[in-house]
């Protein structure tokens, strides 16, 4: 039994690499099943967000290179390119990494709350795929409990900030008065919802939500008095937009350089502030070449995020202690459970010996043998049977020079090692 956590994130890989290693929701179930089949992993889950792609595995023998080879082949990357930016954690370190991720301690924005929901979704998808079993399942539950303790018992979640918050903060720097600005939000997921909330609270003049379907966009728009359009209508809306923030799951860019260039002409080159939070990217990188566009990716938000980290460092120290406690508690319970399995098997073996000797004693009594003789024979025979296997193994191990086994036996059987007792 061994846990393995392996992947890349915003600290180790550029957005270009991260978008090539990202898994779409449509890929996830088949990818999980293929991962288990081709890497001999007994249990597996995949977490894929704009900032990280991670594999959580339970396997008999951890083989990081085999997992990396599968990941590279699946996304058509070279093994060397992926290995250069990947990290691998095993056993206790893998447990600690998962708990730190779920608690927001490994996020671009320290303590951001979205990652816990994304981790829960990863667990749900793995359960749907049938790739989560008892061990990884217990690890996920312990991870969720630890993350909940971090949220409840520390201040790391107070005054929450996120990539969405950072994007709006940058917009405020470029447009001193957001009351006069119009915003186009592309997508209708959780990140865009947070963006809409922050813009709404800042009093943005007009918010338009563009999405593949109007139903989901309408639900978001109702909360913030926004308008809704389809993705196909973006070129008509773009000339009216001072702020464009995009976060979809599209595998191809939604906004190209030509469309933005035409919009700028209609705006008479009035600047447009753009943030592409998506991985893979929604806005072609070439858009940044246009003189009147301020285009930022998630990596570009780092400076804003750094300022927001300062108020959370004290809380992070307390959160790290809770994570370490969570790791120790989980590993202790896991090892305890392993002992329970051994004890159960030993008890079943002992009970079988007892039943056999009891049946023999009952036959002797039925044949008229003295009860005293039967009881003595029962006690002697049962003792011999119970001690036979341990005695044989201890002699064998002692002959092999395994002094550690003798010391362990003394501890296991609560012996003090003296010969006069």
TrEMBL record:
Listed GO MF terms: glutamyl-tRNA reductase activity; NADP binding
Binding-site residues for substrate, renumbered to this chain: 49-52, 107, 112-114, 118
Annotated Quinate/shikimate 5-dehydrogenase/glutamyl-tRNA reductase domain residues: 170-304
Annotated residues for binding of NADP(+): 187-192
Site, Important for activity: residue positions: 97
Domain Tetrapyrrole biosynthesis glutamyl-tRNA reductase dimerisation: start-end pairs: 318-415
InterPro entries: 4pyrrol_synth_GluRdtase (IPR000343), 4pyrrol_synth_GluRdtase_dimer (IPR015896), 4pyrrol_synth_GluRdtase_N (IPR015895), GluRdtase_CS (IPR018214), GluRdtase_dimer_dom_sf (IPR036453), GluRdtase_N_sf (IPR036343), NAD(P)-bd_dom_sf (IPR036291), Shikm_DH/Glu-tRNA_Rdtase (IPR006151)
Residues of the active site: 50 (nucleophile)
One record GO biological process: protoporphyrinogen IX biosynthetic process from glutamate
Record domain Glutamyl-tRNA reductase N-terminal: where: 6-154
Reactions catalysed, as given in the entry: (S)-4-amino-5-oxopentanoate + tRNA(Glu) + NADP(+) = L-glutamyl-tRNA(Glu) + NADPH + H(+)
Domain of life: Bacteria
EC number, as in UniProt: 1.2.1.70
Pathway where this protein functions: Porphyrin-containing compound metabolism; protoporphyrin-IX biosynthesis; 5-aminolevulinate from L-glutamyl-tRNA(Glu): step 1/2
Top-rank EC class of the record's enzyme: oxidoreductase
Keywords associated with the record: NADP, Oxidoreductase, Porphyrin biosynthesis
HAMAP family, alphabetized: Glu_tRNA_reductase
Family stated for the protein in its record: Belongs to the glutamyl-tRNA reductase family.
Function (record text): Catalyzes the NADPH-dependent reduction of glutamyl-tRNA(Glu) to glutamate 1-semialdehyde (GSA).
NCBIfam families for the chain: hemA (TIGR01035)
Note: During catalysis, the active site Cys acts as a nucleophile attacking the alpha-carbonyl group of tRNA-bound glutamate with the formation of a thioester intermediate between enzyme and glutamate, and the concomitant release of tRNA(Glu). The thioester intermediate is finally reduced by direct hydride transfer from NADPH, to form the product GSA.
Comment block on domains: Possesses an unusual extended V-shaped dimeric structure with each monomer consisting of three distinct domains arranged along a curved 'spinal' alpha-helix. The N-terminal catalytic domain specifically recognizes the glutamate moiety of the substrate. The second domain is the NADPH-binding domain, and the third C-terminal domain is responsible for dimerization.
Oligomeric and partner information: Homodimer.
Protein name: Glutamyl-tRNA reductase
Organism whose genome encodes this protein: Pseudomonas duriflava
